[in-house]
Amino acid sequence: MNTRVRAALFDLGGVVLHFRGNGRAEAEKEVGLPPGTLRRIAYKEAFALANYGVYSHQDWLEAVRGDLVAEFGPHAGAAVEVWAKDPGELDEDAVAVLKAVRAQGVPVGIFTNNTSGLEEDLARLGFDAFDALINSADLGVIKPSPVAYRLAVEAMGVPVEEIFFADDNHTNVIAARHVGLRAVDFVSVPGLIADLAACGITLPAPMPATKGERHG
For 90, phi and psi rounded to 5 degrees? Predict the structure, then answer.
């Protein structure tokens, strides 16, 4: 395909931002919960509703608190505050790529399934290397729905065939291609740089060449 790429969309979690589980582990240790408790409890129905924007971020946290208290007693609820302080860890190599793309005059969008707490977390991280933040909690629909992609394309203001998209979830990549995006699987930062170059966005050297496989 020879169509020039005029905008770039990137998934957030697993591409630019990684969650190592440090906040969960710290919270479980402080309150005395078995390891893995928060992962088991937190990512259920309430989390899905928060990604759709039905629940606010705080609604989700309170639902998790309620489940913890119901299973382990009143003391367990304090784990939520400790865990919620962890905004994740930026991959600086990936951030450098996004900044380099923007420096070439290509608008960058972050397209993520997330909760209403996203903007606060990104502010805490000091991450603003994007022109558009497209969050499922605001859209009311999540990837891989075609509706989500069409809304993201609308937000970028560029024809779908002129938008590059990278995601570490292959199902999301397939869905994006079905809608017409120039979608690729994110595996590593060097691979991302090569995929961008194949679409006509050649980044200046030096760029990360050996790092990038940092999925959390």
Answer: -70, 145
Place of tokens 């030096």: 206
| Contact indicator for 134, 155 with CB cutoff of 8 Å | yes
CATH of 7-18+88-198, one of 3.30.565.10, 3.40.50.1000, 3.40.50.2000, 3.30.420.40: 3.40.50.1000
List, in sequence order, every residue forming a beta bridge with 10; answer none if it has no partner.
110, 166
Whole-prediction pTM: 0.92
Q: DSSP code of 158?
A: S
191-200 mean pLDDT: 96
Q: Which residue has the tokens 């065939």?
A: 161
Q: Which residues contact 50 (CB under 8 A, 6 or more apart)?
A: 56, 57, 59, 60, 115, 116, 137
pLDDT tens, 75-102? Answer: 999 999 999 999 999 999 999 999 999 9
User: For residues 127 and 64, what is the distance between their CA atoms, to the nearest angstrom?
Assistant: 27
- Alpha-carbon 67 to chain mean position: 25
